[in-house]
Design brief:
The protein is α+β, with helices and mostly antiparallel strands. It has ten helices and seven strands.
Amino acid sequence: MRDRIVLPSVVVLNLIFLLSGASWAQQSASRNAASSTQSAPAPEMPAHDMSNMKGMEMGSDQSMGSDKEKDSASAAAMHSMEGHMDMGPHMKMTALRPPKPGDAERAQQVVEVARRVSAKYMDYHVALADGFQIFLPNVPQKMYHFTNYSYAHEAAAQFNPEHPTSLLYEKHGDDYKLIGVMYTAPKRFGEDELDQRIPLSVAQWHEHVNFCTAPVGRKWEYLTPHPQFGLRGSIATQEACDAAGGTFHPVILNWMVHLYPFEKDQASIWSVERQHAD
């Protein structure tokens, strides 16, 4: 039975840096260094965070530790070349499989449903009215996730291409331009289970791995240009994390795949390079 788990604030903090980009982090680090010592607390979280992201469950097999451990950590998102794309120590992508009969048709059905469903949300106000919420709206991002947490919870149990977990937007001034959708699946899934949702000969799912939570009193290090901890951190192993006093999590959040249904060709619709960049 799956428990609903609230994401620790430190996990959310690192997701901010992942989405915001290195330049924002470096600017923040400069301001932090000018006004704080290493013992200074981490900056406040934006008013809108992922602390209620019910659908992005941590999973029953890999918890974030006991309540005491989470509290003590201040409530702290690529694999080898043998079958997986190597895209860095904190991101793992599924292997691209040889095509099987029917794969292209199954994938195209998902694209057509995604295109039809998401067309409704060209006006982002409609998405908000339908229950999608902007993840970190006050943080500058290359791409914004408008997430429907009911759909995220549904995706943990079954795949419904009519209910993407998130809509993907680029911001232009005060407006948002819809560019794609994101589907999710439980992190406990193996590749065969992901293949049943969307053929792995066409799509490559990703998940965030090797997460080292900073110890108490060192959360400010997430803001440095070259951090040890978090999704941008240099630490990517249990041993290194233990040595630095952090808490290691092999996998956080769940499987995700981006789909850009308004593109003209299959390579662009399922672009793994764009998925990684976003």
